[in-house]
Structures are given as C-alpha cells and as structure tokens.
Amino acid sequence: MENPTLIQIGRHGVGGVFIQRDPNGQLSVLAHHYTKKDITTLRLPSGTGRGHESVLATLHREMREEVAAQSDDFEFRLVFSKPVYFELDRDDRTGKLTYLKAFFALEITRGRHRDVELIDDEGTPEEELLGPLDWHDIGDLVPHLTLRTHQCAVVATFLLMARLDVAIRNQYQQTWDSWERHTTAFQIENPIVIAYITHGF
C-alpha cells in the first residue's frame, strides 16, 4: 500500500465550505443540487484544477464560477489558512494515489451567492446542471450530502469553529457531543499536502 507521506501529488480538486454565523452561534453552509446523467446529488461547491494552476488559484477561480452571482462583484476569505479536510485519491488517468481533494472553510466578504441554475459543460462530455445555492443549517446538512468527502469537510469545519467559539458549541450541544469524538481524524497534517498547497510542485 502506498505511503501517503511519500507520494508526489499530480493533480488536485478543491471544495468550499462557505459558512455564515448568526449572533446566537447558528452556522449555515452553502450547498446546491448537482445533476449529471439524470442523477441528482446534494453537494458543496467544488471543482478541478487546470494545468499548472495552484490549489489556491483553483479555489478562487472555481468559487467565483460556481458560487458568485456576479463574478466581478464577489470576494471571499479563508476562515483558516489550511484546508479543513483533505484526501488523497487515485487519479483516474494514472491509477496512482496522486489526486488531492482539499476543502477550505470560506466566508463571503463582498457580493452574494448564485440563486439561479448554472449549466456547466466545460471540460466534460456530459452536461452538468448546478442548482441554486441555498443556506443549510450545519447540524442538518451532513446526512443529506451525498459524497462522504463533502460530509467530512462540513464536520471538520464545524469542529474547528466550535472549538474556538463557545456560542457555537452551546447552540449545537448535541451535535458537538456526537461529532467531537471524531476531532483527531481531522487533525492529521501531511507535509506533502501542505507543501503542495503552499508552494506547488
């Protein structure tokens, strides 16, 4: 079995956990319905890197393309400088463990999110339909997300936010009690992944 600390990453994809917090500590996350080949799933905004694009460049491009109502009037910030969750997967082109999926916690600082459908047929033989983005309560969203990686990214974001903000823990006490035991699973840092995100190869 390949050692994930020794591999060299070749390609990457990114996902955004856009959050908003109300004064009482309630957290909401943006998600949309994604349809391809007549199959619809609930997902976070995400996309794949192009060419020699860095992870952060991919993140900024994909989030503007998928999330922004108007790409020229949209800004966001990273809540944490490092990804809240990542996985190394097998590249469908090579079969090797060299494809990075990295998720970042984000906040919109200017503009607004897309509230209409978006057709994405760029780079894929099949048309992809992205439904309007909606805010979902973080405690309710996880079981409805279709992809396990997206579920893990939301749980990891919640755990990081709740550890820093007692109001969030109080608002979601049962959720915290249920998810807190998974904290260590999201604290593993891979130096190869961090170097790739920071500097690229």
Tags for this entry?
alpha+beta; Nucleoside Triphosphate Pyrophosphohydrolase; ten-stranded mixed beta sheet; 6 helices; 27% helix
What does this structure look like?
With 201 residues, this protein is of the alpha+beta class. The protein has one domain: Nucleoside Triphosphate Pyrophosphohydrolase, CATH 3.90.79. Helix content is 27%, strand content 30%. The protein is built from six helices and ten strands. Strands 1, 2, 3, 4, 5, 6, 7, 8, 9 and 10 form a ten-stranded mixed β-sheet that branches. A hairpin with a 7-residue loop joins strand 8 and strand 9. The protein is globular and about 45 Å long.
Category from helices, strands and their pairing:
alpha+beta
Query: Which residue ranges are poorly predicted, with pLDDT under 50 across at least 5 consecutive positions?
Result: none
Number of separate strands: 10
Q: Per the principal axes of the C-alpha atoms, what is the gross shape?
A: globular
- Main beta sheet strand tally, sense and closure: 10 strands, mixed
What is the CATH architecture term? Answer: Alpha-Beta Complex
Q: Proportion of β residues? A: 25-35%
What CATH first level would be assigned?
Alpha Beta
CATH superfamily: Nucleoside Triphosphate Pyrophosphohydrolase
Proportion of helical residues: 25-40%
What is the H-and-E element order? EEEEHEEEEEEHHHHH
What is the number of helical segments per DSSP (H or I, 4+ residues)?
A: 6
Quote the average pLDDT.
Answer: 87
Q: What distance separates the N and C termini?
A: 23 Å
According to CATH, the fold-level topology is: Nucleoside Triphosphate Pyrophosphohydrolase
